[in-house]
Amino acid sequence: MTFTADCLLLFGATGDLAQRMLLPSLCALDADQLVAPDLRIVGTARQKLDDEGYRDFARAALEKFLPEERKPAIEPFLQRLHYQPLDATQTDHFAALAAKVGPVEGGLAIFLSTAPSLFEPTIAGLVGSGLAGETTRIGLEKPLGTDLATSRQINDAVAAAFPEDRIFRIDHYLGKETVQNLLALRFANLLFEPLWNAAHIDHVQITVAETVGLEGRVGFYDGAGALRDMVQNHMLQLLALVAMEPPASFDATAVRDEKVKVLRSLRRIECDQTVTGQYRAGAIGGSAVPGYDQELGQPSGTETFVALKAHIDNWRWKGVPFYLRTGKRLPERVTEIVVRFRDVPHSIFAARGARTSPNRLIIGIQPEENITLSLMAKVPGLDRGGIRLREVPLDIAMDDAFAGPKKRIAYERLLLDLVEGDQTLFVRRDEVEAQWDWIDAIRACWADNAIEPRPYTAGSWGPSAAIALAERDGVTWHE
Ligand code: NAP
After folding, report:
1. How many domains does the chain divide into?
2. Of these residues, 234, 311, 346, 478, which one is catalytic?
3. Which of ligand 1's atoms lies nearest the C-alpha of 11?
4. Residue 90 shares a structural domain with residue 179
5. How much is the CA Rg of the chain, to the nearest whole Å?
6. Is residue 138 within 8 Å of 427, Cβ to Cβ?
7. Residue 13: which domain range?
8. Does 125 share its domain with 208?
9. Do residues 123 and 157 lie in contact, with contact meaning Cβ atoms separated by under 8 Å?
10. E strand segments, 129-234
11. Mind listing the pLDDT tens digit for each residue in 375-396?
12. Is the C-beta atom of 46 inside 6 A of ligand 1?
């Protein structure tokens, strides 16, 4: 059902995500008049605050996390904020919350920024207090489960109260401009699509590299690991967007129908197509950093790095490897997709001593948003000693190309879509479950073969076996 909510109810309103991302995003949307003047924002968490107390809390977060030029927008934004203390495990706390929210006929958008263990009691409380009716939609933060079984349990609990068209599963990568640009690149240009298949593409690489270690996520990360924290959601979504067939239109059903077909076509991975690692003490940017077990304070079998060679068993991608790698304490923070085309079938320059390199399309997602196409060009000169060719980049730096429009962070886009009810950039249940199904098989394979993460030095690109995984096929990771 399409409606624009006139109230946003934020669970986990005092949490890290709320402070760093959600409140700053809402404040930016407010400053640019992108939300209706009468949108009320009600925050809730256990901390005992009143409206003014929460406004003070939000002010401190916004002062810390908003860029300087946005700060004049803080005071007017704070007037939208209201707060009701609540323990989500206590059903009887929800009546007071419902009273604070007030009538919901004008549309209520709920954002659950709490641990998934609270989803079930929260939904029971919402139902019991009349906050889960037809004019309510609900947004859920990851992680949606730790495997297919727990993901189904969460999905079933949510589905008992909300139909799929009112459930908004967040994968914040989908809110990123460059990720959406991938669709524009593929489907708003004639140039690439005829070449976008096994006949012309040699392989695809997707890298999500972090320089940080555990940070404050000790409790969560050690139970999850890189495969579940990064590959199951963000990286498989990127893979699906790269590999999907053209949807008939840019709408929620058409786009998600095509993504889920890709996810279901992923071939089961054998253990020897995976490499896992865990960082040891090393150096990042010249500074010494401890190993994972030192940060954790105990030995652990959790992988902080994973590299995979995946295949999509369909007509378009037959035989094209998708190399995926992600890890913590790698030398640089970078998220990128590299599409390596095949070499020209015959080089007319070979007899004159020149070598060609296959074209590469590099889509940088963070920290810089840019798209680079490597092309072969002749090195200027009279060529007396033979022709020399060299790769030169055709670069689109998105910041330069679009200096005018304001850059929006992912949560601005996603919060707005949640309030307005556009599901295109949210993940459907069948996608999440196809993702878990594939990930569970990898974890089962690791368990059956007692695979332990290999050590790698912080500041390196992971265990050498990850390099070998690609080099066996004559492929070099893009660095
Ligand atoms: P967090 O800092 O631990 O915040 C949790 C929030 O939930 C707090 O506001 C906490 O406030 C509230 N809460 C805890 N127990 C509660 C209860 N029984 N009843 C009501 N409220 C309760 O977590 P976070 O980092 O903001 O993350 C929130 C969710 O987003 C998690 O599922 C996380 O995995 C996910 N996520 C976070 C990030 C990130 O960058 N932080 C990124 C992606 C996904 P009180 O203690 O006052 O109740």
Report:
1. 2
2. 234
3. 21
4. no
5. 24
6. no
7. 7-169
8. no
9. yes
10. 136-140, 167-169, 201-209
11. 999 999 998 889 999 999 999 8
12. yes
